Amino acid sequence: MQQTIRTRAGPALVEEHAPGSSLGAIERQAKDCRRCDLYKYATQLVFGEGRRDARLVLVGEQPGDKEDIAGRPFVGPAGVVLTDCLHEADIERSDCYLTNAVKHFKYEQRGKRRLHSRPNAGEIQRCAWWLGAELDQLDPHVVVALGATAARTLLGPSVKVTRDRGHPIATDSRFTILVTIHPSYLLRIRDRQAATAERSRFIDDLKTAVKLAKGSE
Ligand code: SF4
Questions:
Q1: Mind listing the pLDDT tens digit for each residue in 103-152?
Q2: The domain spanning residue 168 has which CATH number?
């Protein structure tokens, strides 16, 4: 049975963004964002990209090292996995819109390496404003939450990826949400069999999202 829940990202936009703002205008505003401290350490803002008329929007956690340098979402190793899995789920990356819950890279410097550091609840909450602004300008049928940060941003703290993944969740916004893992998780599984099984499950989740987005489920 489908749940219906209130999403958190959309309403923030309605209060604070004038109707009619374009996605480009919102991105320009976001480049000057000082809502939290993450802008101080990142190379640049990484806003979403993709088709403005995408039926499927995918939301990750935050940019990684490569995304921070390139200024584009999902261009690192997890992005390669995601692109391949989308293809196997019968949709091309170029047909989607990809973004992150948090728009600046958070990391710990270890020598020359910059190690991913999970954004905290305050940073996630402050940056949800921008995700809400993006979603308000797009018209997706389905929003896929890739991992716990995206899921909590969209659905609140009670959502659990392990429990809620793969099931369409109806919302009072225009779109349905589907929760699944973040593709970076697949890169961390050491056991080959387990990695293959988890990859198949991820593709199945994406297939469910694609079918919903195409209106066939
Ligand atoms: S992470 Fe988000 S809220 Fe924080 S400064 Fe960057 S754009 Fe603003």
A1: 999 999 999 999 999 999 999 999 998 999 899 899 999 999 999 999 99
A2: 3.40.470.10
Residue of 127, 129, 134, 149 to mutate, ligand 1, most atoms within 8 A of C-beta: 127
Helices (H), the chain: 9-16, 23-30, 65-70, 77-88, 121-137, 148-155, 161-164, 184-188, 192-213
Distance CA 56, CA 209 (A): 8
Summarised one tens digit per residue, pLDDT across range 71-92 is 999 999 999 999 999 999 999 9
Helix (H/G/I), strand (E/B), else coil: 2: coil
* Ligand 1 contact via 38 beta carbon (within 6 Å): yes
Task: Give me 170's structure tokens.
Answer: 């109806």
For residue 182, the CA-to-ligand 1 centroid distance in Å is 20
Find, among 142, 153, 128, 135, the residue nearest to 52 by Cα. Answer: 135
If one residue of 44, 117, 124, 130 were mutated to test the ligand 1 pocket, choosing by the most ligand atoms within 8 A of its CB, it would be: 130
**Number of domains into which the chain is organized:** 1
Predicted TM-score (pTM) of the model is: 0.92
* Domain housing 139: 4-213
